[in-house]
Amino acid sequence: MKVGERDKILLGLGTGVLLASSLRVFVAGAYSSLEKTFFYGVNFPSGMGILLFIIAALLVGRLSRKAGAVIMTIYALASLATDATEYTHLIAAFAIPIALALAKEVEVKYLAMGLVADLSLRVLAVGGEPIDFPHTRVILALLLLPGAYALWREPGTLKKPGFGLYAFAALLELGLIYPNAIMRYSGVNVYYLPQFVGFSFVVALAILLGQFLSKKPGLAATLLVLGSASLFVKPAGLVGLPLALASTVALLESAKGSRGGVIGAVYLFLVATLALGAYIGRDIGLAFMEDRLEALILAAAVIYALSSYRRNVEVELPSVKEIAGSLAGLVAMAVIVLALFNAGPVYEPAKKEVLIWTYNVHQGFGPYRGTFNGYELVNLLREQKPDIWAAQEVVGGMIGNGYQDVPLIISAYLGYAYEYKPALEGTYGIAVFSHWHMRTEGELNLKSVGQARPAQKVSIEEPGITIVNVHMGLSEEERAMQAEELLSFAKASPVAQIIAGDTNAEPHERAIEILTRDYRDAFEKRPPYTFNWGNVDIENIDYILLKKDWAAEVKDYGCLCDVEVSDHRPLWALLKLP
Hints:
This protein is 50% helix and 15% strand. The protein has 19 helices and 14 strands. It has helices at 5-40, 48-59, 65-81, 85-105, 108-124, 134-152, 163-176, 179-185, 193-209, 217-229, 237-250, 252-255, 261-280, 293-308, 320-340, 374-384, 406-414, 476-491, 510-515, and strands at 353-360, 388-395, 417-424, 428-434, 438-446, 453-460, 465-471, 498-502, 519-521, 531-533, 537-539, 542-547, 553-559, 571-576. A 6-stranded mixed sheet has the order 3-4-2-1-14-13, with helices on one face. A 6-stranded mixed sheet has the order 5-6-7-8-12-9, covered by helices on one side. The longest helix is centred in the N-terminal third of the chain and has 36 residues, at 5-40.
């Protein structure tokens, strides 16, 4: 089939962007909808996306190329219209097999260009999900639609992708193409925009230059396994995972020859499920997976290496001009974000009246429909301007929410400094944000029977405040146990004047009785609720507690109870410091 060079490039760009984007949206939407089913009994769409994904894997080899173009166009338009992943993931369920069918035909060098284009969008979104922000959403659609048009012009049917291509997709979706995920997996908890942008070039070079390893499949397979194993020796993953990514791309041409596409689709679903189990394993019956993402990545690397290893595979390598062209787009995005956004913290002078927030941001999701909330969160914080924010369920690159980097987004847009305490895998936990210099004094995961529950103690220099930020467990007995441990942690030197966070405990509970032995509620009168999911589940569980012997005066306090950026509501207290 004769295809013009321009159409090859357009199709390659569209395929790479479609593959990376639809993988993120599919997993995020399926996770969000199943979470809603688990907690609130909402049965639509629940597991429908997973079923559609398996059906699409069965049908893809029978679809015409025009049908593939239509699905690609629908995905682009849906992404342009909304970031409600609970619904768009139903389209992504078909888009993933379409993207992998195209990956089977597209030359590796053109697919690599598409993956770098998606990375460039991530840079322009400063670590956010591109469909969350209006400007990147438009560019995403503009990258997909020409590819759909090029596909429409070609006669024939799509080729059915085999197991190897689904194994390739599984490795990408485990985070190998996301610079923030690699950095946080490797133990780098705090960084800012220049470091993120710089490491994005490392990832881009791994994608583009990895193709040159394709003539040495044995070496590529070895580097893939060794690079993945580097995660067990932090921070070696900063070098090892880019090598693993380069090797993944090097073996892609070999992966195209495998069969077993439906088995591959089931495998991809299982890998994504196990990856989520690394974060919430004890809550979903996968306790053996908790905090074992490194082992999963290594196992997935071995499986991909075995499924794709073949000799005598011919690959057309990219020219210097083609590599430079891909990097030029990334350079342009880097220049734009470094010019327009904050390269680091914007520090402010001390003041006597300090606005304290506590706010659980729900893993980067809005309360309903699986929408991403980075854009809304930025606008809320820009309007309200808290001086210190104790944040919970803060994600820095987690598979379940599109690999958003909430600390990076907030610091880049608004100039906040932050201290991040991951509970699991370096990418999910709690954080303290402020416009003052901070230092972590201590951190721990509280004793838990369910999901890991973190606490951190942070000293804030200019106002002379030490704050404990916490996210406690789901059972009342567990919370009482954690409260004793948390109180000892807060009272240890340096003593925290403030405990703030999501305790999951109602005011009458034993956990709050324990904490208020030495701390008092900043709220003389509790708000009607601090958590509200659709008026179905209403709870009063977030607190700002002040040390009883601390002379700070509560000038005012309140709850932004009408704000629905998360399932929780922001609580605030205006303190006059002694």
